[in-house]
User: What shape does this take?
Amino acid sequence: MEDNLKKILLQTDFHAPFNVTCHTLRHSMASHLNDKDVDILIIQSILGHLSARSTEPYIHPSQDRIRKAMEKLPSVKFVKELIRKGELNLRFQSSRRSCYGGVGKPFRTKRE
Assistant: This one.
């Protein structure tokens, strides 16, 4: 099956920033289904697993799903409200010191 997938990909104009294999497609499918709120027992059945515990490693939450979960935290809601009201003005430290007291590398974007 892996050889057939490679032949299909070579015949198409498909480019991905990662190595596409049958295994990566299984992980991607499970993660996408999970992001669409498909029950893990359904994903388990689709993947042919006997146990939901076998399915768990295939599920990787998207950054958007993680962000939405974090925004539900009371402390995050509180800080966002303070910022919205103008009662909190966050400024990030430009010093080279890390939050642990040591000297750290300055933050640089990928383009620098």
About this structure: Residues 1-58 form one domain.
